[in-house]
Specification:
Distance between the termini: 85 Å
Low-confidence stretches: none
Largest sheet: none
Radius of gyration: 48 Å
Order of helices and strands: HH
Mean pLDDT: 85
Number of strands: 0
Strand content: under 5%
Length: about 180
């Protein structure tokens, strides 16, 4: 009986040794799994931090672009107002020139009438010639003013076009960044 107990004791000891080996292997696999998961967690945290930094950079860039856009829009509005004012001024000057031209035509017809009556009064003819000369100089001044105004209008339109191009480029950059 003693032999049976010793054999049984040896068998139980070997069984316990086998169970210990199985548990050690299981613990080893669990530690590897934990190490792998920890490494993945660290990598995901690094990626999350990098993504948050990019979000912050993009937010700052969007704010900067919004500021630039608002500045360009303000400049566009002022340029548009200036252009409208100059257009109205040009229209008013054009109306003044039309009135002067009408007076010139009327003066020309009066001159023809005075020339018929030249024998009766050369003094009136001289006076009329002076009036016509004054009107001609006024027309020349008006033409010079119109040329200057047209030049200013062309410059304003060129500036407006340049700002519009800048604004469109800025909007394209903004749209690319907002995607």
């Amino acid at each position: 009986m003693k032999r049976v107990l010793i054999a049984l004791l040896v068998l139980i000891s070997l069984s316990l040794c086998g169970i210990c080996v199985v548990q050690w292997q299981r613990e080893f696999r669990l530690r590897e799994t934990i190490a792998t998961l920890t490494a993945k967690l660290v990598e995901e945290n690094k990626q999350r931090i990098a993504a948050e930094e990019k979000v912050e950079q993009y937010s700052q860039e969007i704010e900067r672009l919004n500021g630039i856009r608002m500045d360009i829009e303000a400049k566009l509005l002022t340029t548009t107002e200036e252009l409208r004012d100059r257009t109205l001024d040009q229209a008013a000057r054009g109306f003044s020139i039309a009135i002067l031209m009408n007076e010139t035509i009327r003066s020309t017809s009066e001159l023809a009438a005075y020339q018929k009556l030249a024998g009766q009064g050369s003094e009136a003819l001289k006076k009329h010639n002076e009036t016509v000369s004054e009107q001609n100089s006024a027309i020349e001044k008006a033409n010079a003013s119109l040329r200057q105004l047209a030049k200013e209008r062309d410059e304003a339109i060129t500036k407006l076009n340049a700002r519009t191009i800048e604004f469109n480029q800025l909007v394209e950059k903004y749209n690319k960044l907002s995607r």
